[in-house]
Amino acid sequence: MSRQRPAAGGRRRRAAGDTSSPEGNWIDPEEAGCRLAVKVTAASDLDPLLAVETVAAIVIEVGDEAVARQQVAKAHGTGRAALLVDRLDLVAPLGADGVQLNRPAEVAAARQRLDRNELVGAMCGHSRHDAMVAGEDGADYVVFGIPGVAPAGGPDGEAGGGPAALVEQVAWWSEVAVLPVMVTGRFTADDARRLAEAGADFIMPTIDGDVPGLEALARALAAAQR
Question: What is the tens place of the pLDDT at every residue in 130-144?
């Protein structure tokens, strides 16, 4: 399969040792900013989400396959990428851009199964080790943080450690790795600004249908990049 993927903001990065320039790389080398990704379900109304210009991708929890197909088509129709949570088997049938895996240990198998131009993302929580292994196994991007959880806790970056620890984790990754980094969780506008300044390529906030909240994060990212 060779499909031109929608461009999304962020730095162009490649996996270590990969000197190729895959057609349709989802990160536009002319973009330099952090953008949003939004996780959706079959019940989600995409129109208000896709009206937020900073949204670069939707991440679909597939329930009804017919609905997921429509969501992929709508995302592509507005120039956004569409990724499926864990459903390797549906990437080609639904015309999606790839998968986002909840278990980073599955990256190697997914990379072997999917076309090289199809994306593999890996949820790595707060584990730097899991992120490094996922990158070595062929992930196209890694995700730090926990969906639905504000970045709060103790001082240990591996265990959570609050907003400052997540910011430090992103900054560390941006220094040592070539893969794009996404962060997920419940974020304030100030959290989003700090994560963008630390080097996050994408932020996937838990919004629970809160479009004004998503718009507030978009404004914070725009302010961070002026």
Answer: 999 999 999 999 999
Q: Please tell me the distance from the alpha carbon of residue 112 to that of residue 116, in angstroms, as a whole number.
A: 9
DSSP, collapsed to helix, strand or coil, labels residue 194 as helix
* Residue 28: both structure tokens together: 């536009």
Residue with tokens 């986002």: 100
* C-alpha separations of 16 from 39, 105, 137 in Å: 28, 18, 10
d(CA 50, CA 54): 9
- Main-chain dihedrals φ then ψ at residue 144, nearest 5 degrees: -105, 150
Amino acid identity at 183: V
Task: Indicate the pairing of strand 119-123 with strand 141-145.
Answer: parallel
| Residue closest to 138 by CA, chosen among 5, 23, 18 | 18
Half-sphere exposure of residue 153, counting CA atoms within 13 Å on the CB side?
A: 15
Evaluate if pTM is beyond 0.70: yes
Residues 64-92: tens digit of each pLDDT:
999 999 999 999 999 999 999 999 999 99
